[in-house]
């Protein structure tokens, strides 16, 4: 059979061997491939994580612990305060202005623009001519609710040392009750002029005077009290505070409670632990990218960042000089340098050292460094690696124009931190890849929640001001303008039962040519002391009284004298004064009153260590001169420093109130006084020629007594102003059923001066009610030169703990009634809280514009207290204030009333019968002065009341209202006010020259009313009641 050509091939299997060298090569290739894939994704990160775990343990890097959260009501209050510009002096700046949630809780500016700015963040500009930046970068407020946040500000000037104690700029004046360092920090931005408080002379956005700016820079308690008063004047804030502090009456709340609420809001709202780094620390090893993980290992390892940025908060809370270039205005006395921590400690080792900042959310909180000098985080990192190179190459042109001052380019300024002993050059070199890894790690510290906080912005704030202040373009800035006020409308009262009177009208004398100022006349009287130097309570000086002793139509003067005879100066016209010595020694206060109601004015003195002396006016004697006989006041035996006269029970006779100054009695009389029954406050009722005493207080330090209708019931009450820590006293007359005119102790005022030396009252805003003014001792300037004479004395007088409910403050006080009749202290708002070591302060319409002005005399001499000053004297100028618009008093140095002769007693009256008020001052250790009024403008009317058919012929206690086309002006007839001094019973009204006089309303002491319609300006009106 023939074989097919298509046959099945035979398969033959043969084995082949690979070369021996190829097998290892293949394994190497496979392993390389595996390593290339697994090393960067699994093996290296695992190895880095293992390495990092040890580094983290070494650096104490753990998950931070949160502080306990605050009640929701407190957080809600804090939210309102944080966003409300009412907390600033100009009402244009809030906390959020520089710590905005949309800007990383900062402002994205190198240095902030605080008050008088407009706009938000990089768009913010100054809206006034004064353009001064806040000297340090605004730190973010992230994560303040974590344990360990106990050091605040770049220089650490706030540090928590115990749970309830803090190092702070206010030292012992910091109020108690602050809950943490964050709350303490919230106390201080409002005290900074460039941040929130504003400058002297600023007006707020409504055109009103900035009252916070007028407070002295060192008087932080007064700033806080004033701001708290403004807050509680807003009904919505009253509700918020009550909700946040339900167990504390509003009257007992202070700004510390507001600061606690602000802190509660910041801690609750801006504390986040949800960053990738936080997740990593909590065990999620996939939370970080490999680059960030490498950066963390560098951060905690080779790069050495954790040497300072350690612990749960990524900060050691210590201070380091890392050579940051100096830019901006600088801070304090070292400007244009900012020496940082050394400003607080004074240590050379702290020069240019600043607090290590916490780093959570650092990637979104630029610019960086204490002065915002680096605009990128990468530059900030590079600076840590090579400060010398970064400073040398720094481009100042990238900074805002206001930071590009001439000095920033001066090498000696910008490089100064590099040459300080506290600077040490780092020895770390990193590649660009390693720097990128560190930046990736820093990015991992950012909370995703923190990137969008728009949900935290409220729609409104309780004050109804723009939310956050002037941070939006539509929040138009109101430029400073003169104070605007409406012309008062006069509603003329009528009476169908007006009491008839006899009226005489005498034109004023021709006035000397006006020159817009006061002219000083020296008088031949000096209040002396026992020795060559003034010691202890001799410094209290003596008073002066004015009235028409001889009824010749010219007002006479009487001066008390500590060591030597008293003096009478008889007014002979044209300011010609004839001196007569009155042989009464060691006199303090002096009043001129008709004690017996015989129609002749008598003289009464208090003394240092004896009871009152009474010089009865005997009328004109055989020599043609008025004579005086020294007589006892029957029934008046208590020792007294101060006194006041008035008809307190309505029987027509003048009664008396006296108060002792126990500190002087204890020093002078020693055991005699110590083991006696003491003195205190007495009210004497005059009945049938004698005075019947009622002891109201067993002890007092009474420098002044005033008789004023405190509760508007038509009766005069008793006010006693005490020195030292004894609170001022008040007694109200009780005439209800079965009360029989008893005196009831009361505390009608929310604030009183701590060292009350003066009371005066007047209708400063022409609303028909009297405001009460009390003086204390507060420097009228806060610059270092002005404060220097005070400082040693102030350091020796440590502040005493203030008990809850104590109304005393070291400040002048101006008490005004609100619509509900409650008193509020408006001294700061009115610009009169600080007038020096103030003794007597008196109201009077000095420039005759219808508004009561204010004059304050001051100064202090004491051989023990001021032994470090020449002549042992704190030399100060008297202060004159012009009333502007009825709500604010502006200093008036152009009136030339700034005498520095250490004035004590003072009184105002028209001494030359030209229609304007002159001023008389009894100085200590210097001649008395008479300041003749030669201001220009306005017109006036003066009133002399007589009621000879009563035991009160000079109508002490009468109220007089002048109704004009420009408003109604209210005065009263009194025997005394101010410090140790007596007032003329002749009443002065000033008013604008264009005013039309409509009616004079007289409310006599017994309540009878007289209307006089036939009036002419520039006359003395004599009104006699039959």
In short:
This protein has 1026 residues and is α+β, with helices and mostly antiparallel strands.
What does this molecule look like?
The protein is of the alpha+beta class and 1026 residues long. 18% of the residues lie in helices and 24% in strands. It contains 19 helices and 48 strands. The strands form 14 sheets. Strands 29-33-34-37-38 form a five-stranded antiparallel β-sheet, with no helix packed on it. A four-stranded mixed β-sheet has the order 8-48-42-45, with no helix packed on it. Helix 10 (290-300) packs across helix 15 and helix 12 (377-385) packs across helix 15 (432-443). The longest helix is centred in the N-terminal third of the chain and has 38 residues, at 22-59. The chain is elongated and about 155 Å long. The model is unreliable at 1-16 and 473-489 (pLDDT under 50).
How would you classify the helix and strand content by structural class?
A: alpha+beta
> Helicity level, as a percent range?
10-25%
Which segments are poorly predicted (pLDDT under 50) over 5 or more consecutive residues?
A: 1-16, 473-489
Could you describe the largest sheet, including whether it forms a barrel?
5 strands, antiparallel
Mean pLDDT: 89
**Sheet with most strands: strand arrangement:** 29-33-34-37-38
Number of strands: 48
Report the total helices: 19
Distance between the termini: 178 Å
Beta-strand percentage?
A: 15-25%
Calculate Rg over CA atoms: 38 Å
């Amino acid at each position: 059979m023939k074989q097919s050509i298509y046959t099945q091939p035979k398969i033959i299997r043969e084995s082949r061997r690979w070369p021996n060298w190829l097998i290892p090569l293949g394994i190497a290739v496979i392993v390389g491939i595996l390593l290339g894939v697994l090393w960067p994704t699994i093996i290296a990160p695992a190895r880095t994580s293992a390495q990092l775990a040890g580094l983290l343990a070494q650096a104490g890097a753990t998950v931070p612990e949160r502080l306990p959260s605050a009640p929701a009501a407190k957080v809600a209050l804090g939210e309102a305060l944080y966003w409300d510009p009412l907390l600033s002096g100009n009402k244009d700046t809030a906390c959020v202005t520089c710590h905005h949630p949309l800007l990383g809780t900062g402002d994205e500016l190198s240095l902030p623009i605080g008050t008088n700015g407009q706009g938000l963040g990089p768009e913010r500009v100054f809206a006034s001519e004064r353009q001064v930046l806040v000297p340090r970068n605004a730190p973010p407020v992230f994560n303040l609710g974590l344990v360990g946040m106990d050091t605040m500000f770049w220089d650490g000037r706030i540090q928590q040392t115990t749970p309830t104690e803090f190092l702070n700029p206010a030292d012992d004046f910091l109020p108690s009750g602050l809950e943490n360092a964050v709350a303490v920090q919230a106390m201080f931005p409002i005290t900074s002029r460039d941040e929130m408080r504003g400058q002297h002379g600023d007006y707020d956005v409504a055109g009103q005077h900035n009252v916070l700016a007028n407070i002295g820079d060192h008087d932080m308690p007064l700033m806080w009290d004033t701001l708290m008063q403004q807050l509680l004047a807003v009904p919505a804030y009253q509700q918020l505070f009550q909700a946040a502090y339900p167990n504390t009456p509003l009257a007992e709340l202070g700004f510390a409670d507001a600061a606690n609420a602000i802190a509660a809001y910041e801690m609750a709202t801006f504390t986040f632990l949800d960053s990738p780094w936080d997740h990593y620390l909590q065990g999620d090893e996939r939370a970080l990218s490999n680059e960030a993980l490498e950066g963390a290992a560098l951060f905690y390892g080779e790069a050495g960042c954790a040497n300072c940025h350690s612990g749960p908060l990524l900060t050691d809370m210590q201070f380091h000089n890392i050579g940051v270039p100096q830019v901006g205005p600088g801070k304090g006395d070292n400007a244009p340098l900012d020496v940082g921590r050394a400003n607080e400690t004074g240590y050379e080792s702290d020069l240019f050292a600043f607090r290590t900042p916490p780093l959570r959310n650092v990637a979104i909180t630029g610019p960086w460094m204490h002065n915002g000098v680096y605009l990128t985080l990468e530059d900030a990192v590079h600076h840590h690696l090579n400060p010398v190179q970064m400073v040398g190459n720094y481009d100042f042109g990238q900074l805002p124009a206001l930071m590009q001052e001439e000095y920033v380019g001066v090498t000696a300024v910008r490089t100064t931190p590099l040459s300080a002993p506290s600077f040490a050059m780092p020895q770390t070199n990193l590649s660009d890849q390693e720097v990128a890894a560190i930046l990736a790690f820093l990015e991992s510290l950012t909370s995703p929640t923190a990137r969008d906080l728009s949900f935290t912005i409220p729609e409104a704030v309780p004050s109804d001001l723009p939310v956050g202040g002037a941070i939006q373009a539509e929040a138009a800035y109101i430029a400073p303008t003169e104070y605007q006020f409406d012309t008062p409308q006069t509603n003329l009262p009528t009476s169908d039962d007006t009491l008839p009177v006899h009226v005489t009208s005498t034109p004023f004398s021709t006035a000397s040519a006006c020159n817009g100022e006061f002219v000083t006349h020296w008088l031949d009287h000096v209040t002396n002391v026992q020795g060559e130097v003034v010691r202890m309570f001799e410094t209290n000086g003596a008073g002066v009284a004015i009235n028409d002793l001889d009824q010749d139509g010219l007002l006479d003067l009487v001066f008390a004298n500590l060591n030597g005879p008293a003096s009478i100066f008889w007014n002979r016209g044209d300011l010609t004064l004839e001196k007569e010595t009155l042989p009464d020694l060691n006199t303090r206060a002096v009043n001129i009153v008709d004690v017996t109601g015989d129609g002749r004015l008598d003289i009464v003195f208090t003394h240092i260590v004896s009871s009152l002396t009474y010089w009865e006016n005997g009328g004109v004697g055989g020599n043609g001169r008025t004579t005086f006989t020294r007589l006892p006041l029957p029934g008046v035996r208590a020792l007294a420093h101060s006194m006041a006269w008035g008809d307190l029970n309505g029987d027509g006779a003048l009664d008396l109130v006296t108060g002792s100054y126990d500190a002087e009695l204890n020093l002078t009389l020693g055991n005699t006084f110590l083991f006696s029954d003491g003195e205190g406050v007495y009210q004497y009722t005059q009945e049938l020629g004698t005075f019947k005493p009622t002891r109201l207080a067993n002890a007092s330090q009474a420098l002044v007594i005033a008789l004023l209708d405190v509760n508007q019931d038509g009766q005069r009450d008793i006010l006693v102003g005490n020195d030292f820590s004894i609170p001022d006293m008040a007694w109200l007359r009780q005439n209800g059923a079965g009360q029989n005119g008893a005196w009831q102790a009361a505390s009608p005022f929310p604030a009183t001066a701590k060292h009350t030396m003066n009371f005066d009252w007047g209708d400063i805003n022409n609303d028909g009610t009297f405001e009460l003014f009390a003086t204390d001792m507060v420097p009228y300037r806060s610059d270092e030169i002005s404060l220097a004479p005070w400082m040693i004395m102030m350091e020796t007088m440590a502040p005493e703990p203030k008990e809850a409910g104590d109304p005393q403050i070291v400040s002048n006080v101006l008490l005004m009634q609100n619509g509900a009749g409650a008193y509020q202290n408006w001294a700061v708002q009115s610009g009169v809280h600080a007038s020096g070591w103030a003794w007597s302060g008196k109201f009077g319409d000095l420039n005759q514009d219808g508004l009561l002005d204010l004059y304050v005399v001051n100064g202090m001499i004491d051989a023990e207290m001021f032994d470090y000053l020449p002549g042992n004297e704190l030399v100060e100028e008297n202060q004159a204030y012009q009333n502007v618009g009825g709500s604010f008093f502006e200093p008036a140095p152009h009136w030339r009333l700034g005498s520095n002769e250490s004035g004590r007693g003072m009184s105002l009256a028209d001494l030359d019968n030209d229609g304007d008020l002159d001023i008389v001052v009894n100085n200590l250790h210097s001649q008395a002065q008479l300041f003749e009024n030669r201001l220009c403008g306005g017109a006036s009317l003066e009133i002399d009341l007589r009621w000879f058919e009563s035991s009160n012929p000079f109508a002490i206690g009468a109220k007089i209202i002048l109704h004009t086309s420009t408003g109604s002006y209210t005065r009263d007839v009194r025997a005394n006010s101010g410090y140790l001094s007596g007032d003329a019973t002749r009443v002065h009204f000033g008013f604008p020259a264009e005013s039309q006089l409509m009616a004079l309303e007289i409310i006599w002491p017994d309540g009878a009313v007289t209307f006089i319609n036939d009036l002419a300006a520039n006359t003395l009106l004599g009104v006699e009641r039959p």
